[in-house]
Model the fold of this input.
Amino acid sequence: MSRNYISHLRSLSKAAAKSEVTDLICAKRFELLDADDVNSAMATTNATDFDVDDVEVSDVNIEGNEAEAEFVFVVNGDQDPDKPWSGNKIKGSALAIVDDEAEVRFRDVEAELDFDE
Done:
């Protein structure tokens, strides 16, 4: 995507801008697995092969040359059958910053094990 991505987002309806930003976040969702809170939560489980399965953007705000998107996500892993169950689902939230070149970076990533099954 070229420069002027923020201008492009401004030209869209709120729903269309949210959809585009959601697509950008989903394309880089695997970077969430490297965030400290997510990594710490994964380390407390007996699960492997973690994947970010669900991303839901709640709001997109465009200011200056950036768009900020608040979102929640779910990370699931495969339980190791040879080890006791200690959770395999992580819920988290974060802020995505999208710049004028449609590059995404994550900030304020928080995550914890979710034992509600």
